[in-house]
Design goal:
It is built from eight helices and five strands; from the N terminus they run βααβααβααβαβα. The protein is α/β, with parallel strands linked by helices. It has a single domain (about 5-140), classed as 3-Layer(aba) Sandwich (Rossmann fold), CATH 3.40.50.1010. The chain has a five-stranded parallel sheet with strand order 3-2-1-4-5, sandwiched between helices.
Amino acid sequence: MNDPAVVLDASVLVAGMRPGEVHHVAAREALEMLTRQHWRLFLPAIALAEVAAAIGRGTGSAARAERELTLLRQTPRLMIMAVDASLGERAAAIAGSHRIRGCDAVYVALAQMLNIPLITLDREQRERSPAALSVFAPDEVRARLFG
């Protein structure tokens, strides 16, 4: 891939959208930095449901969840990737061999398939992902990608 790109886990998106989240500032800064520097941001399509659920359940507002999804879809250089049979098979292999939860394995598989870093707040994704994959938290974006 020629353009700089990352896969974003839903945990980062949700933290960036909700000011009350513990990691809100770090997630927001990472997202703004990546957007400002014109990075391509990849999400598996399941991220939409994960974000909607977290916002809707957390706020009790379906309207708020839909507004956040609308804003997310308008993010420059955002690429929403289908979870097809090939990605599903790769995710299944990762889930089984690395003991990563099913949906979390989809993000890892997408990053591995595209050969780009994964940014996540999920400790298990960071600790259990294949060693060759670059996986880190939002507060590491500046040092790891722009340092």
